Amino acid sequence: MKKIILSIGGMTCSACSNGLEKYLNKQEGIKTASVNLVMANALIEYDEKLLNQEKIEQFVREAGFESLGLFQDIKIEEKRKQEKITFFVFLLLAILLLYISMGDMIGLPIPSILNRNINPILYTITLLILTIPFLFYGKDILKSGYQNLIHKTPNMDTLVGIGVLSSMVYSIYSTYLIFIGEHHAVHNLYFESAAIVIFFIKLGRYLDGISKDKTKEAIQRLVKITPNKAVIKVGETEKEVTLDEITKGDIVISKPGERIAVDGTITKGKAHLEQSFLTGESKPVARTVGEEVIAGSINYDGYLEYKAERIGKESTISEIVRLVVEATNTKAPIAKVADKVSGYFVPVVILIAIFTFIGYLLLGYSVSVALTSFVTILVVACPCSLGLATPLAIVVSEGLCAENGILVKKSEILENAQKVNTIVFDKTGTLTYGMLKIAQVINYSNLEEKGLLQIVGSIEKKGMHPIAKAFTSFLEENKIEALDVENFKEISGHGVVGTIQNEEIILGNRKILEKYEIENPAIQDEEKLSKDGNTIVYVVKNKKVIAIIGIKDGIRENVKEVIQTLNKNNIETMMLTGDNQAVAEKIAKEIGISKVIANVVPMQKVEIIQKLKEENKFVMMCGDGINDSPALASSHIGVSIGSGTDIAMDSADVILTKNDLQSILDLMQISKKTIRNIKQNLFWAFFYNTLMIPIAIGILRPVGITINPMIASLAMVMSSFTVILNALRLKRIKLK
What we know:
The chain is an alpha+beta fold.
C-alpha cells in the first residue's frame, strides 16, 4: 500500500468533502481516502499494483472536483490583493444594485429614469445588466453545484446554484412580460436576490479563506524554519546552492548565526546549536565531530562542516510537517458523525424546498411567493457552518500542538486524550533522562576495571537500549577503543550477548542469568546497589558471573509536578519497567507513583496494558519509543518521548519532541478544550438550521414574519463566521 496527499480544488463545504470522500472510497484499489475541507487536500492510501496517481486524479475529476497535484507545501497568501480588489468592486456594484431595487422602499430618492413605476423597462434592463457580472463572479459556485448534482453528490453550491438560477429564470420570464406590456410584473423581479446571494456567499468564502490561512500558520512556521539556501564544499571552494540542489553526501558549511540546512553528521568543527523549535530547550547544546545536526537548528558560535544525510522529504522538519498534515487528514469520531449528517442534509433540504414550493402553489399563493420561499430555504440551509465546525477546530488544535512540540498522528487522539484515566510510564528514558552513568563496579574477576568496562562497552555499543549509552559514553570520555564483537544478539527485556576474542560475554539483568541457567552469587551485592537506586547489569563470562555494575539515572525535570497534577485529577499513574523492584520503587516513591510493576519484558508490558483495558480503563502508555513499541501500540494512546531523528520510525500515536512530560498535561488540556469547542460549533450550526429553515418555510408568515433570499444569505455568512471565530479561540489556549 502507498500513501499520497493530493491538493483538491473546488471544495466549498462538508457536503463537497463528504461526497468526494465517499466516491474515492468506493473505487477499487483505494484502501482509505480522507478528505480535508480546511486544508483542501485528500490523504489516500491505495494499492500501487492497481492504481497510480494519474488514475486517482481521474477519480477526483469524475467526482466533480479538481486535482491540483501532490500536496507540496502549506501555502498561505501574504496578501489577497487581487481577491480584495475584486471583492470591493462587487461591493460597490452590490450597493448600487440594492439602492436601485430597494431604495424607494426605505424612502431614498431614486432618479425617475430608474423608477420602476415610471420607467419599468429601463429599470428592468438596468437590474439585469448589473446582475450579469455577479453570475460571472459566482461561476465557480454555479459550476460546482451543477457538477456535484450530476455526480449525485449535491453540496452547498448545489443549493445556491438551484436558488440563483431559479430566481434568474423567473426574473427573465417577468422581464419578457414587462416587455410585452404587463408592467405589473416589475414587482416579480428577483435579479437583486440572485446577485446579492452570490455576493454574500463570496464574502463568506473570502472571510473563510483568511481564517483558514490563520489555522495553518503554525505549520507554515515549521516549514520556514529551514533556510532557502546553503553553502556546500566543492573541492577546496565554497558554493552557494538552493536546498533542492543539495544531494546526500555533500559537505555543507555552517557559520555562526546561520541555520543548519539539512540533517546530517558533523565532519569538522564544533559549535553550540539552539534547537528550541524541536526540543523546547532554548539553551544551546554543544555539538562536535561525529554528532548529528538537525535542519533548522541555529549555529551560535562555531564553524561546522557536516555531511548531508537526510534531505528534502526525509529531513526531520519535513517529517514533522508530514505528520501534522496527515493528522489533519484523519477524522475524529465526532467529525464522522457531523460528516454523515451533512451528507444527508443537502438532499433533504432540496426536497423540503420543492415540497414548500408546491405547497404554496396548492394553497393558492402566487408563483412569486412560492419561488421566494423555495430560494430562501435553499440559501438559508447551506451547511457551510456545519462543515466547518469540526475540521476547523481540529486543524487549529493540530497547529497548537505542533507549536508546543506535541506531534499528534491521528485526529482521533485529540478527541480521546481527554478520556484517559490511567497512564502507564516506562522508567528509563521516560521518567528519567536515560542519560545513565556508571555509578559503581563490583568486580569478581582478575581483570582490571578499565579492561572489564572496555569489554562491556564494546558489546553494549552494538545495542539500542538507553543502558548502552552509559558504557559507550565511558569509552568516549576515557578515549578507550572498542574491541571487535561478533555474534551480537539482543534479548528483549533481558540483555545482550556477544563474542570477543572467541569468548562469549553475557550482559543483562537477573533474568538473563535465569534464561541461561547461570548461578547467581551476587544477590546480596545486587540488593545493596539496588537500594541505593542503581540499575544492575550482570557481566557473565564463560557461564560465570565476573562482575555486577550499578548504573544511575537522573529523574526528569517537572516529573514530580506532572505526577502530582495527574493524581489530583484522579488519573491513575503506574510505572512499568524491566528494571528490578527495588530501583523502581525508590524512584516511584520519590516522584509520587504508588503502583509499580518491575522486572517485566516488553511482551509482559503488553499483557498488563491489555488487562487494564479489560478493566474498562482508558490507557495511555508513555515510553521511549524503541523497546516500548509493542506496549505503545497496544494502549489506547501511545506517547513517545523522542527526539526529531526518531520521528519517522516511531510507532507511537503522539511524539513529544520537547522530551517534557508536561506536554502530556498540555495534550489533555488541548483535547478537552477542542472537544468542547467542536460541540459548541455543532450546536450553533444545528441550532441555526433548526431555527432558520422553519422561518424560511413560512411558519411565522401568519404573524407577518418572513425572510427573503438576501437576508438568508447574510444569515448563512454570519452563521459560518460565528463558527470560524469560535474555532479560532482555541489559538488562545494558555498552556503552562
